[in-house]
Each structure stands twice: as C-alpha cells, then as structure tokens.
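Hi there,

I know you've been waiting on this one. I reran it after we fixed the sequence typo, so this is the corrected version. Both the input and the resulting structure follow.
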Amino acid sequence: MLDRCWERLGIASALIASAKGRRIDGELVERICFALVTQRCLEPGSKLAATSWVTERVAIQSCPSFDDQAAYAAMDFLLAALPEIAERIFATTANLLNLTCDIIWPHRR
C-alpha cells in the first residue's frame, strides 16, 4: 500500500528524474529513500536500523540490501535536490487533486 501511494503521489518519478545528471543511480536512491520512509512509518528507527530492517525483516520490491553509507548518500541527495523534488511532487499532487495555484512562495533557508 505504501509503495502504491509513493508511486501515485509521484515521489518515485520525482526522485528518479531529479537524479538525472547527477552522479547517483536514480532508481537505487529512490528505492533506498522508499525503504527509509517505509521503515519510519512502520517501525521507526535510525538509518542504521533501517539497513538491518530491510535486510532481515521485510521484503521491499526492487530494493537491494544497502548499508548505512548508502542511506546517508541518499539523504545527501535529498537535501541537495529538495527544491526540484518538491516542485515535481507538488505538480503531481496538484494534478491529482485538480488544484490550481497562482502563487507559490519560495522556500528560504
């Protein structure tokens, strides 16, 4: 169910598209991010706990075993690409909900 929601909201495609042109495997980072989010939803824990959770306790489609370094690399990618990812997800969600938006205030750090 979580995987279907992830796909429907356009999160998977936003991550994969945002990874293009970067030195990272988009499909791999998408699955790692999904695993981290799924673990936080079902059995909250650290990124380190997520690595063993994925390996030992659950089966996530197309998600390879990964180590804590891969989890940190995925999180670094998310931080670097956040504005682009958020824009893509917003566009998909607005389309799903049939929303229109005239003004979007930029995120400031």
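Quick highlight: Helices lie at 2-8, 11-19, 26-42, 47-56, 68-96.

Best,
R. S.
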